[in-house]
């Protein structure tokens, strides 16, 4: 067996070396197949199971042999060596079998491995193929999805709706028969139609653009034409001025005024606007004009750098020329005062015409630094007035508008902030400058829209149109009433100074036909003198004798009786009645403190004045009061009870018809005159 | 002497008129309420003002306490005379007498309880009522004035019971002689007449001006004021203020007062009188002038002593006349303050 196995071994070795070198050997191999012993082929032939059994048997045999050897060796003996040798040879054979089996196992293993390897390679190849195919599939799927998602640009176009399309499109485009069934064709047709429409519209657009260009050019031409017209119109307006004046339609003048008005300071502007509006709307007798220099007004608003430059230049010049002479402190202060009281160069003039053709001229000024307005008044009449002595103050510009509203005497500045300004330049009160600057009445401020609230001093007071408008009508009416009542008084004074009490015919009914007492004197007295009279104390204490009133003294006489009447004339005449205080000198001096009847006479004239007002506008009040005074004196003297102890007849026989001579605890005389019965009774 | 001149307040038409009215106001009559705490004053415009004496006299009195609590127009003409019963205020002026309830009077818009007019003879002119007198025993009211008669009116029924004629000129004042009962009346004709109420006849006549001691012809003969204290009577006016003994009709004391007196009254052992001139004069019965206390009005027409038992703290003398003020004298020696319309 060992030779067989070595034989087996050798060819194997030769074959394995020699095979790859020569190709011819392959043929020779196969030829030598019959000759060689191919172990590999043997593997295929043998059954692995049987080999395993052989292996187990061999191992058993080897174990048995070894055991026997062992036995023999242990027993020892002579034939043992031969038996051991025998057994050794047998074991070698068995070893050889084992080796073969081992070889076979190895070859089987190798074969198995090769087979596995092959199979595995195949599987791998298939696997790769599968992967490739999968990839392709995925790719194709992606492409399909892309294709499916593809939106053609045509879907973004807003096509006209189907109905419209079929309505409007011409049949060669719409091809209804085809397109109805086939949506693809339909869409194509619609797109066609769309394209056509767009082309058409683009044409139109171009046409319109060109039209527009043309029209713009025409407009340009016409504009030039019109602008060349303006100077021609101006010249026509100039030429029409004389015609305007002839027709009393001073449009140009009004236009000029409005131009000038733009330069007015705000309060004067408010006044101007409101007065013009009021004049046009309600009162045709009011006329408004602006006076003053517009250039100066414009000069006030020169930019500050220029004026500063000018100042510094002029200062430098002044310093050079008048280095030695500095202005004295007084002169400096004077200049500062003048600066503070400076008036705006423009002023507004209002002319109020009254029924009897007398005119009240009001000139309104604006004091820039003090932010107040002042007014100067002048009354002119249609005919020249001869001023009676006592009427001196009635129409004087200083006092004619005093207390138009109660307490508005116009001697103090209405702006509380002015006081601080005055302190700086040493002005005590505006009263000293009022003659020159005009009176700062409160109603003047209101007409200019300036409101100076007493409780909360405001930093800047701005001119307010609504304030002016709300006061305009009342003030104008009051002004007119004031002028007319003053003029009426003026006339009446002229008559009173001659001793005649002018009673108009419509007031005759208030008095009996025969009045014997006569007015002998009518003079004006100064305020201080009035305060010094002994019979006027009550009026003074009641606060009714302020320095804004006018004071007069009248003297009524009859026989030996002399009645002095001190009269307080309030500027608000005739809505506020004149107040009389009497002193009778007849058989002693009787005043209201020692004779109740004198008190009653005063009451008749002062308290019951409403009966004496006469027809509106009650300008007859004063003269009626004076006439009544004469009547009262008559009654008093005639009803005096005769003193039995004195001899001789009564000085004044009773001529008046009286029902009763005395009445009541105070034994009042009958002072009330009853019309038309003509008798006297008690109140 | 420099007088402090009040600042002239800017006065509109209404303020000036009101000031003039106040200057020319005359308060003719006064009457104290039955509780003693209020004083009613009537003026020549026909208004009645109710002042709270308790408020004005209290220690916390302010300026407003001296103003009337309420003022209302009572009559069309002047209110010449007022008198109070235990519940009503009776006021009379131009020809009629009106009654007001004291409890109602303090409310605004008070209306009179009743008004009566005595039967007058003349219709040409309504005569004034210068004096009212209460006769508690009969519960009647006596009115006298311009028609020269005394009329008696029963306060229960309002009927005019008697008309006493005798005066030849209008009647100024009345006084009651409790004991008899007799009424004294003084008039413009210069006579003081005594009337017996039960018989309704004139019992006695004193023609004051015929007595040389007291007559003052330059003032006239009219009797302006009367007061009586059982047997004694004091009267004044044109003639001098004189104290008379009634039974003998003789003048016992002549008070040397030049100015005619318009109101006279007995008080404790004094005689108080007031008239032309500012002062309230206090006379002893002997004829001596005890004191002359000046008031604030240039002439006084009425004096009122608040002797109501219910309000002893308001026991004051009030004087009113030719002004809108009522002077209050807490102590007869000086004028404490003035209430003003």
TrEMBL record, chain A:
Its main location: nucleus. Keywords: Nucleus. InterPro entries: THO_Thoc5. Transmembrane segments: none annotated. It is found in: Nucleus. Residues 22-42 have a biased composition (Basic and acidic residues). Pfam families: FmiP_Thoc5 (PF09766). Residues 1-42, 301-336 are annotated as: Disordered. Residues 306-319 have a biased composition (Acidic residues). It comes from the Eukaryota. Belongs to the THOC5 family. This is THO complex subunit 5 homolog isoform X2. It comes from Ceratotherium simum simum (Southern white rhinoceros).
UniProtKB/TrEMBL annotation, chain B:
InterPro entries: THOC6, WD40/YVTN_repeat-like_dom_sf, WD40_repeat_CS, WD40_repeat_dom_sf, WD40_rpt. SMART domains: WD40. WD repeats lie at residues 164-205. It comes from the Eukaryota. Keywords: Repeat, WD repeat. PANTHER family: THO COMPLEX SUBUNIT 6 HOMOLOG. Belongs to the WD repeat THOC6 family. This is THO complex subunit 6 homolog. It comes from Ceratotherium simum simum. The gene is LOC101402994.
């Amino acid at each position: 067996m060992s030779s067989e196995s070595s034989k087996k071994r050798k060819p194997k070795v030769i074959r394995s070396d020699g095979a790859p070198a020569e190709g011819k050997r392959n043929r020779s191999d196969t030829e030598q197949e019959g000759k060689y012993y191919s172990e590999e082929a043997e593997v295929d032939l043998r059954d692995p199971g049987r080999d395993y059994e052989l292996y187990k048997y061999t191992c058993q045999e080897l174990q048995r042999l070894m055991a026997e050897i062992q036995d023999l060796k242990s027993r020892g003996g002579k034939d043992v060596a031969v038996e051991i040798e025998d057994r050794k040879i047998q074991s070698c054979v068995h070893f050889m079998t084992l080796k073969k089996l081992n070889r076979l196992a190895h070859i089987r293993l190798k074969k198995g491995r090769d087979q596995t390897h092959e199979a595995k390679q195949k599987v791998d190849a298939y696997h790769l193929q599968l992967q490739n195919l999968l990839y392709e599939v995925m790719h194709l799927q992606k492409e399909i999805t892309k294709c499916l998602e593809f939106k053609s640009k045509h879907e973004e176009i807003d096509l006209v709706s189907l109905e419209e399309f079929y309505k409007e499109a011409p049949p060669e485009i719409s091809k209804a028969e085809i397109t109805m069934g086939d949506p693809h064709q339909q869409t194509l047709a619609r797109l066609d139609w769309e394209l056509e429409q767009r082309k058409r519209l683009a044409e139109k657009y171009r046409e319109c653009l060109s039209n527009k260009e043309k029209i713009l050019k025409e407009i340009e031409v016409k504009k030039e034409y019109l602008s060349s017209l303006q100077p021609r119109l101006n010249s026509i307006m100039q030429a029409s001025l004389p015609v305007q004046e002839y027709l009393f339609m001073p449009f140009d003048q009004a236009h000029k005024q409005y131009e000038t008005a733009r330069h007015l300071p705000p309060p004067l502007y408010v006044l101007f606007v409101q007065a013009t509006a009021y004049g046009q709307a309600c009162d045709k007798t009011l006329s408004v004009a602006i006076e003053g220099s517009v250039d100066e007004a414009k000069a006030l608003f020169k930019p500050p750098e220029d004026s500063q430059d000018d100042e510094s230049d002029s200062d430098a010049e002044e310093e050079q020329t008048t280095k030695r002479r500095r202005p004295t402190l007084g002169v400096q202060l004077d200049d500062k005062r003048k600066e503070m009281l400076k008036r705006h160069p423009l002023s507004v003039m209002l002319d109020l015409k009254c029924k009897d053709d007398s005119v009240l001229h009001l000139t309104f000024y604006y004091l820039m630094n003090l932010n107040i307005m002042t007014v100067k008044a002048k009354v002119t009449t249609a005919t020249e007035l001869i001023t009676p002595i006592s009427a001196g103050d009635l129409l004087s510009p200083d006092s004619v508008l005093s207390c138009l509203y109660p307490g508005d005497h116009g001697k103090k500045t209405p702006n509380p902030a002015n006081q601080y300004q005055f302190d700086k330049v040493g002005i005590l009160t505006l009263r000293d400058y009022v003659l020159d600057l005009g009176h700062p009445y409160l109603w003047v401020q209101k007409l200019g829209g300036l409101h100076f609230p007493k409780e909360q001093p405001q930093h800047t007071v701005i001119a307010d149109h609504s304030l002016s408008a709300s006061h305009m009508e009342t003030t104008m009416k009051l002004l007119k009433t004031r002028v007319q009542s003053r003029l009426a008084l003026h006339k009446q004074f002229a008559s009173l100074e001659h001793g005649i009490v002018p009673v108009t015919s419509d007031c005759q009914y208030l008095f009996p036909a025969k009045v014997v007492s006569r007015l002998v004197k009518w003079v004006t007295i100064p305020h201080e003198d009035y305060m010094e009279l002994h019979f006027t104390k009550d009026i003074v204490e009641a606060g009714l004798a302020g320095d804004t009133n006018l004071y007069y003294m009248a003297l009524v006489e009859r026989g030996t009786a002399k009645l002095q009447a001190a009269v307080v004339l309030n500027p608000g005449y005739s809505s506020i009645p004149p107040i009389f205080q009497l002193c009778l000198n007849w058989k002693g001096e009787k005043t209201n403190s020692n004779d109740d009847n004198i008190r009653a006479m005063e009451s008749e004239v002062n308290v019951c004045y409403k009966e004496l007002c006469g027809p509106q506008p009650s300008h007859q009040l004063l003269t009626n009061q004076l006439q009544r005074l004469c009547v009262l004196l008559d009654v008093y003297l005639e009803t005096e009870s005769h003193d039995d102890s004195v001899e001789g007849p009564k000085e004044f026989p009773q001529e008046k018809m009286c029902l009763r001579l005395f009445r009541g605890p105070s034994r009042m005389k009958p002072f009330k005159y009853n019309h038309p019965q003509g008798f006297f009774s008690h109140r | 002497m420099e007088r402090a001149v009040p600042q002239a307040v800017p006065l509109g038409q209404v303020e000036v008129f009101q000031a003039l009215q106040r200057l020319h106001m005359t308060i003719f009559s006064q009457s104290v309420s039955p509780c003693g705490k209020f004083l009613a004053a009537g003026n020549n415009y026909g208004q009645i003002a109710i002042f709270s004496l308790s408020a004005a006299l209290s220690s916390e009195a302010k300026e407003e306490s001296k103003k009337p609590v309420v003022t209302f127009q009572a009559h069309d003409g002047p209110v010449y005379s007022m008198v109070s019963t235990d519940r009503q205020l009776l006021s009379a002026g131009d020809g009629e007498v009106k009654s007001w309830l004291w409890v109602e009077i303090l409310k605004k818009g008070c209306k009179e309880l009743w008004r009566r007019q005595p039967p007058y003879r003349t219709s040409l002119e309504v005569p004034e009522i210068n004096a009212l007198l209460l006769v508690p025993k009969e519960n009647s009211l006596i009115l006298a004035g311009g028609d020269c008669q005394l009329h008696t009116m029963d306060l229960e029924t309002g009927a005019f019971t008697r008309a006493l004629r005798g005066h030849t000129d209008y009647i100024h004042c009345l006084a009651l002689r409790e004991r008899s009962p007799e009424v004294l009346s003084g008039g413009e004709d210069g006579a003081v007449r005594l009337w017996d109420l039960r018989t309704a006849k004139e019992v006695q006549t004193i023609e004051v001006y015929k007595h040389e001691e007291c007559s003052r012809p330059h003032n006239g003969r009219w009797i302006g004021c009367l007061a009586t204290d059982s047997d004694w009577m004091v009267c004044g006016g044109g003639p001098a203020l004189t104290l008379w003994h009634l039974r003998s009709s003789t003048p016992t004391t002549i008070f040397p007062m030049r100015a005619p007196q318009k109101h006279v009254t007995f008080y404790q052992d004094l005689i108080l009188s007031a008239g032309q001139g500012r002062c309230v004069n206090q006379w002893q019965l002997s004829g001596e002038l005890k004191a002359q206390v000046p008031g604030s009005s240039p002439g006084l027409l009425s004096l009122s002593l608040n002797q109501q038992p219910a309000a002893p703290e308001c026991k004051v003398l009030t004087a009113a006349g030719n002004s809108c003020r009522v002077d209050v004298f807490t102590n007869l020696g000086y004028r404490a303050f003035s209430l003003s319309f």
